[in-house]
Amino acid sequence: MGDESAFDELFSRYRQRLFSFFYRIISERENSLDLVQETMLSAYKALDRWQPRAKFSTWLYTVAANKARTFLRATRRQIRERPLEVEHWQFGDTFGLQVTSKEMNPEQQYDAELIEDTFRLGISKLPDQQRKVFILRHQNSLKLKEIAEVLKLKEGSVKAHLFKAVANLMKHFAYAGVHIDARPIKGGADE
């Protein structure tokens, strides 16, 4: 079945990302943890079917997306994604909303918290496919082609969902009266 220590390394590398993915989809901590375990177990059992021509992360997210779909179908729940308050949440450089200094004055601290709160709320209000595409792209740093494989969409649809997600987030910020310094995203949309 494969080298268990190598698989333990993969589990350590992907468990938090998978947990964040599931948690925002089903909004339940325990079920999200269970789905991470189920995904990794399924991946381990099916490791011999993984084709090295595809990235392991793409294949793993495909397994995770299928687990989420099955869970939601079984529980007949509406997808309710949790705002971005999962431990160790990081967008890194990809979104460009970074606090540049830890020594902020109270006004700067308030502005930073307002932007973060507005961003979290905006993400939670995105339509399901836009939210998934945005999260896979900006939290998990998947390329558009990989997102298309994971969500079983055409790459053009992924681009459209990503464009609409960003547009909807910008509208949300404008509606909330929050001004942000929108810097270009590193690497562009074609990665």
User: Can you summarize the main beta sheet?
Assistant: none
The residue-averaged pLDDT reads: 75
Question: Which percent bin holds the helix content?
Answer: 55-70%
Q: What spatial form do the alpha-carbon principal axes imply?
A: globular
Structural class: mainly alpha
The string of secondary-structure elements, in order, is HHHHHHH
Percent of residues in beta strands: under 5%
The DSSP helix count reads: 7
Query: CATH H level of the largest domain: which superfamily?
Result: Winged helix-like DNA-binding domain superfamily/Winged helix DNA-binding domain
Low-confidence stretches: 77-101, 183-190
Tell me the distance between the termini. 33 Å
Calculate Rg over CA atoms.
18 Å
Q: Got a strand count?
A: 0
The fold-level CATH name of the largest domain is Arc Repressor Mutant, subunit A
Total separate domains? 2
CATH class of the largest domain: Mainly Alpha
| CATH architect. name of the largest domain | Orthogonal Bundle
Brief digest:
By secondary structure, the chain is mainly α.
